[in-house]
Specification:
Layout lengths: L8 H28 L4 H4 L13 H13 L22 H32 L8 H20 L7 H9 L2 H9 L4 H11 L1 H22 L11
Helix pairs in contact: 1-4, 1-5, 4-5, 4-6, 4-9, 5-9
């Protein structure tokens, strides 16, 4: 039987909450670091919050994933509303922008480690059996956070990795790279649709981070839900 068909409604609801928390924490981390570095634009717009509503983007969060799901695409792509950042408020614009960018993926790594630690504790202390449905929720928490970290670290504008890459470039190379942002979504979708090697790279990064966290924590079960 399909494992998804056996998942109870409470477990499904908790799984959705785990995914929403991963996304909202990622965006809130961007906004919080920007605020700490001198730009309060996102803070004043209410983006330093775990409430998912301020982070929802009609096209990227709802329309695009919905269309891809209904069309039977082998993958689903989407995102939250970009956190507005005014680099003119930063003391060192490119450095501080890189710090704001890395805050999102870092928040996902911290969450993945947290879920992995909770999962290990629950199993080691006999609170859950390895076959418990609750295990699926925490496995999903690890997986979705690792996925968000790995995917967002890809150096294609406007993903977080591109902000970090910009910090290491200089002069004309930096300007040319930043100019790609207007085509970033098209480049990204093109890679997803037409470049099979792109999936191999992303999958390799996901497995690297997931296996590393699993090894560090000492997980007694896989960090990947059985239905993925």
């Amino acid at each position: 039987m399909d494992p998804l068909m056996e998942i109870s409604a409470p477990i499904l609801l908790l799984s959705i909450l785990v995914v929403v928390l991963a996304i909202t924490t990622h965006e809130a981390a961007h906004a919080w670091v920007a605020f700490k570095l001198g730009d309060d634009h996102a803070y004043r717009m209410g983006r330093v919050t775990l409430n998912p509503i301020p982070h929802i983007d009609l096209m990227m969060t709802i329309v695009l994933p919905g269309v891809m799901l209904l069309s039977g695409m082998p993958f689903i792509f989407g995102g939250a509303k970009p956190v507005p950042v005014d680099v003119r408020n930063f003391r060192k614009p490119f450095r501080d922008m890189a710090l704001v960018a890395i805050a999102g993926p870092l928040s996902n790594i911290i969450q993945a480690i947290l879920w992995a630690s909770v999962l290990k504790g629950f199993i080691d202390f006999g609170i859950w059996e390895k076959s418990s449905q609750g295990v699926l929720v925490l496995q999903l928490g690890i997986f979705i956070n690792v996925l968000l970290c790995a995917f967002n670290m890809i150096p294609i504008p406007p993903l977080d990795g591109s902000r970090i890459m910009s910090f290491f470039l200089r002069g004309k190379a930096r300007r040319s790279y930043i100019s790609l942002e207007r085509y970033g979504i098209m480049i990204l979708l093109g890679c997803l649709w037409f470049v099979p090697q792109f999936f191999i790279i992303v999958r390799t990064c996901i497995n690297f981070f997931g296996n590393l966290i699993s090894s560090i924590v000492g997980l007694p079960v896989s960090w990947i839900p059985e239905y993925i």
